[in-house]
Write a structure and sequence with these properties.
Largest sheet: 7 strands, mixed
CATH architecture of the largest domain: 2-Layer Sandwich
CATH class of the largest domain: Alpha Beta
Structural class: alpha+beta
Strand order of the largest sheet: 4-10-9-8-5-6-7
Radius of gyration: 20 Å
CATH topology of the largest domain: Endonuclease, Chain A
Oligomer: single chain
Shape: globular
Strand content: 15-25%
Number of helices: 9
Number of strands: 10
Number of domains: 2
CATH superfamily of the largest domain: Endonuclease Chain A
Length: 247
């Protein structure tokens, strides 16, 4: 039976295909891949389903569907049941929305902090913009290399960072750097690093020695970098608050 709200949408000439694509792009903008976005929308549409069922509705390869749905579980967008086949259910959109809004507020609080410090200090060129993923990853590696005491990395995509700068992380830990990683549950963490699990992370932040900091976009395509110690310490304090929050 079609719900009254859906009936009104259809009667009003709503293009469901267009709405599907719009919702997909919105979810991609908050850090999901295209397949993950389609998978979550399909889960919401079905209410629950196996990887095979969701793959068909989401129009993603069946060979990728299980991995995509497991990733959604790790990111807090879905839950899975035990048994064969594994059945997946979506987290309620309202719950996901609330979590995303909370993290967006955290991110914009950091940006407000940047703005206020820049305005109060009156110092030009405190924050530098770096674009393209290879250059952002290169800068993250440079920050890790220059660390002398501490390094905090907060990111929803630690697996990608580890793949690119994992050796530098291991070398930093071997040098005695106090390395802390804030990331989604289920990520593989280098031995010797401290870890704080947080769901729904959006931006990637790197703080080194409280003296240099980087804030990157969800897909690591661009970042802002500063070597202003005052600003970096403010951001470090902000991340410490996040680490101390209870789930």
């Amino acid at each position: 039976m079609v719900s009254q709200d859906l009936s009104k949408m259809l009667a009003g000439g709503v293009d469901l295909e267009q709405e599907f694509e719009r919702a997909t792009k919105t979810l991609e903008s908050i850090g999901l891949s295209g397949y993950e976005a389609r998978g979550y929308i399909a889960l919401v549409a079905h209410g629950y389903g196996s990887a095979e069922t969701i793959a068909e509705t989401a129009r993603i390869p069946r060979t990728s569907a299980y991995k995509v749905l497991q990733s959604l579980c790790q990111k807090g967008f879905a839950i899975s049941t035990r048994g064969r086949p594994t059945i997946f259910k979506p987290e309620a959109p309202s719950k996901v929305k609330g979590r995303v809004i909370d993290h967006l507020e955290d991110t914009f609080a950091k940006l407000d902090l940047l703005h206020e410090v820049l305005r109060s200090k009156g110092e030009p060129q405190l924050v530098y913009t770096i674009v393209t993923k290879p250059r952002v990853l290169e800068k993250i590696g440079e920050l890790i290399d220059q660390s002398a005491e501490t390094c905090i990395v907060s990111t929803p995509t630690f697996s990608e960072i580890r793949e690119n700068v994992g050796k530098k992380i291991e070398q930093a830990i071997a040098r005695g750097i106090r390395f802390t990683i804030i990331t989604e549950p289920g990520q593989k963490i280098p031995e010797g690093a401290g870890v704080v699990n947080r769901k729904g992370l959006i931006a990637t932040d790197v703080i080194v020695d409280g003296s240099a900091a980087l804030i990157a976009a969800p897909d690591l395509s661009a970042c802002g970098y500063t070597d202003n110690a005052s600003l970096s310490r403010h951001l470090e304090n902000f991340l410490e608050i996040i680490m101390n929050l209870k789930e």
